[in-house]
Amino acid sequence: MEWEFSLDNIYDVAKAFWEAFPAQKVFAFHGQMGAGKTTFIQALCKAKDVKDVTGSPTFSIINEYEYLCEGTKRAIFHMDLYRLKDKQEAEQAGVEDVLYSGEICLVEWPEKAPAVFPEDTIHIYIDAISSEKRGLKIADI
Ligand SMILES: Nc1ncnc2c1ncn2[C@@H]1O[C@H](COP(=O)(O)OP(=O)(O)O)[C@@H](O)[C@H]1O
Ligand SMILES: [Mg+2]
């Protein structure tokens, strides 16, 4: 699966993304610094009607947001593993627990702790085609 998007249609692509993955839980976002991982994850959260999507400087390894899933409050976890050194540190931070919590997890820098990801993780690759255009590729579906 492959999409191309700019900031003008990022929200449409975010909605199409959730339509393509209605039941999957763990999503690993690969891509260089500045590729647009955080920006796309924020669009995904918005598309789920998350109220308080933060891009704040206090962003920690694990951020928990809330959304309504068929009328029930559920969590979405946005994780940025960039500052993690190894698997042990990922475990200490609680990354593994969250990945197996059954809630939606959107994870940046999965390369920092590849061993902790569930087997059915969806791997997504984002790259900058130009200053405004981004490409998003999803393997094997
Ligand atoms: N189509 C696009 N999708 C995502 N980001 C874009 C796009 N076009 C421009 N940008 C800009 O690229 C930068 C991406 O930054 P960010 O999402 O923090 O990347 P990453 O999390 O991959 O390091 C932001 O400044 C954003 O405004
Ligand atoms: Mg980021």
Low-confidence stretches: none
The appropriate CATH architecture is 3-Layer(aba) Sandwich
Our estimate of the beta-strand percent is 25-35%
Q: Largest beta sheet, briefly? A: 7 strands, mixed
Within CATH, the superfamily carries the name P-loop containing nucleotide triphosphate hydrolases
Shape field: globular
Name of the CATH class? Alpha Beta
- Mean pLDDT score: 92
Determine the N-to-C terminus distance: 6 Å
Q: Order of strands across the widest beta sheet?
A: 1-7-6-2-5-4-3
In this entry the ligands are: adenosine-5'-diphosphate, magnesium ion
Total domain units: 1
Topology order in helix (H) and strand (E) letters: EHEHEEHHEEE
User: What share of residues is helical?
Assistant: 10-25%
Which structural class do you get from the secondary structure elements? alpha/beta
Radius of gyration: 14 Å
With helices defined by DSSP (H or I, 4 residues minimum), what is the helix count? 4
Query: Could you please say which CATH topology applies here?
Result: Rossmann fold
Q: Can you count the beta strands?
A: 7
Task: Briefly say what this structure is.
By secondary structure, the chain is of the alpha/beta class. The protein has one domain (8-55, 63-138): P-loop containing nucleotide triphosphate hydrolases (Rossmann fold), CATH 3.40.50.300. 24% of the residues lie in helices and 30% in strands.
